[in-house]
Amino acid sequence: MNALVFLYKHVLKQPLDQEINAVRASRKINIPVVMTREEVAQIIALMGGVPQLVVKLLYGSGLRIMEAVRLRVQDIDYNFKQITVRSGKGAKDRITTFPTSVIPLLQNHLAKVRVIHNRDLDQGYGEVYMPNALARKYPNAAKEWNWQYVFPARNLAVDPRNEKVRRHHVDPSVINKAIKAAVRKAGMTKRISAHTFRHSFATHLLQRGTDIRTIQALLGHKDVATTMIYTHVLQQGGQAAPSPLDDLGV
What we know:
- A hairpin with an 8-residue loop joins β2 and β3 (94-97).
- The protein has a single domain, classed as Intergrase catalytic core (hpI Integrase, Chain A, Orthogonal Bundle), CATH 1.10.443.10.
- Strands 1-2-3 form a 3-stranded antiparallel β-sheet.
- By secondary structure, the chain is mainly alpha-helical.
- α3 (49-61) crosses α7 (172-186) and α3 runs parallel beside α8.
- It has helices at residues 2-11, 37-45, 49-61, 65-69, 103-122, 134-137, 172-186, 194-207, 212-219, 224-227, 229-234; strands at residues 76-77, 82-85, 94-97, 157-158, 165-166.
């Protein structure tokens, strides 16, 4: 249907006067892979450094991997214990919870990041990418501390859009590789990725009795039906009807 609309609008230059009542294919519903609390703790314990800190936010705040690596210093509110996710999926902002246990680790990490930022400034760099038209509106903001990435890349790089030398955020592949290595070391057979920690965040909140609407808001889901998939996870195995085999005693 989208292809037809594109054809008429941009190729034939003939806008469609009538609505296309096309039958859309039904999407397959996949039950997400979820870890237990013990498995989450085991994976996190086998990691270290920046990857471990990022994973703690994936699980502790329900972030997507790109939302985590794109965090700016000003997006974290220690007093209200919340994280502001800017331009998440669907270009929407949202607020989610911030784990208190991460505060000292994150503050120690940001102290090191600030040293790197000050060194970049001394060398004539220190500028970060600014979203939308903020670079034109606030020309000096790109070098301010509050706009810097929480998880910056190790090296400076040339921005292909304007040839400026900047320090981008850490590449998601660094986090993904660290997760795979930890899963392999733990000997787990589940297919665990960065997104699995987000699934586990939602499922464990449900287990604790958190309202489904609250979880929907924390995850940034447009429709509560998307969040309801986690109730299906809880209905599997020991959370649902016990197996009849256990009644036989054989």
